[in-house]
Design brief:
Layout: E1 10-15, H1 19-30, E2 39-42, H2 46-56, E3 59-61, H3 64-69, E4 79-84, H4 88-98, E5 107-110, H5 117-124, E6 129-133, E7 143-149, H6 155-165, E8 169-173, H7 177-188, H8 190-208, H9 212-233, H10 237-243, H11 250-260, H12 263-283
Parallel strand pairs: 1-2, 1-4, 2-3, 4-5, 5-6, 7-8
Antiparallel strand pairs: 6-7
Helix pairs in contact: 7-12, 8-9
This protein binds NADP nicotinamide-adenine-dinucleotide phosphate.
């Protein structure tokens, strides 16, 4: 049978092995897309290097450059992906350190918030760059990642990126970096909107007289069920809402108050403000 795993001959180097790098490494290994011998990582702290080695069996380097150059492809069937997974404020130093360390066939995938493809490519002197925008539920494999690529990224590399990002949950390729900023406002900042609503609903339950634990149970499962029902039924949200809105009933009363309070407009304005913020942060 033909090998359908696009990562079977791919080697990975993770630059900065913090929370997100670990999530991706754990996902790649759990799904058996690669073995530990195909992964190396770098980290400035020895304790963290030891932890990653013991936990996942991956080789760890103190030097970012050594980790990257060790994954240079050795033949036409091999490929390698370098994942930049440091905090935005550390990126400049890391790019300086890695300048000119790549060969043409390598692919750089950045998960660094706000860092533009052009900036990364110029500073690394390397053209094949993918920029991703994951979100926090990626930490339990339920994330949503938007990504886009420079024109030098080929089809094989694109399918490798898709396979890699599957380790975080779902992913969608968007057309350009403006849409990465849009996804930053919608899916990456999105959990914040949901958590605020979750908190407000739990507090409303406590206000009525439920214990906090019972209010949390009711709200968590209600939210989970409502989302799953929306996804599985493929119905428009308004249709689902109408299904539970009987004349003169509780939903009708609640909807009236939410519209009166401008909830829909507030959400729309919040997403737009987050989009503008993402755009302005990208310019710094
Ligand atoms: N967490 C998320 O859900 C999420 C979502 C979307 C995007 N992102 C983006 O993903 C990137 C990584 O986030 P994260 O949550 O994984 O952060 P993190 O846990 O802080 O991971 C970054 C790691 O890089 C290490 N580091 C610091 N300086 C370094 C250097 N010079 N060379 C190599 N490694 C270095 C840090 O070590 P120390 O701990 O010793 O400082 C840390 O372990 C960030 O740019 C973030 O914006 C994260």
């Amino acid at each position: 049978m033909a090998d359908t795993n696009p990562l079977s001959n791919c080697r990975f180097a993770f630059v900065g092995c913090g929370v997100m790098a670990e999530v991706i490494i754990a996902g790649l290994l759990r799904k058996k897309l690669v073995g530990p011998e195909q992964i190396v990582g770098s980290h400035p702290r020895q304790a963290r290097r030891e932890e990653m080695h013991v936990k996942y069996g991956v080789e760890m380097f103190e030097s970012n450059r050594e980790a990257v150059t060790g994954t240079h492809p050795e033949g036409p069937d091999n490929s390698s992906i370098i994942v930049l997974a440091v905090k935005p404020q550390r990126l400049h130093v890391v790019l300086e350190e890695l300048k000119g360390a790549f060969v043409k066939e390598q692919l750089v995938v950045s998960i660094v918030t706000g860092a533009k493809i052009e900036t990364i490519a110029e500073q690394l002197l390397h053209a094949s760059v993918v920029r991703t925008m994951p979100n926090t539920p990626a930490q339990i494999g339920e994330g949503m990642t938007a990504w886009t690529a420079s024109s030098e990224v080929n089809e094989q590399q694109e399918s490798q990126v898709r396979a890699m990002l599957d380790a975080l949950g779902k992913n969608v390729r968007v057309e350009n970096e403006r849409q990465i900023d849009m996804a930053t406002a919608l899916s990456a900042t999105g959990p914040t909107y949901i958590y605020l609503m979750m908190e407000a609903l739990i507090d409303a339950g406590v206000h009525m007289g439920f214990s906090r634990r019972v209010a949390e149970d009711l709200v968590h499962q209600m939210m989970r069920g409502a989302v799953l029902f929306a996804v599985e039924s493929h119905k428009h949200p308004a249709e689902l809402r109408n299904m539970v809105t009987s004349p003169g009933g509780t939903s009708a009363e609640a909807i009236y108050q939410m519209e009166k309070g401008g909830l829909r407009t507030v959400l729309s304005k919040a997403v737009w403000a987050a989009f503008q913020r993402a755009e302005s942060l990208g310019k710094i």
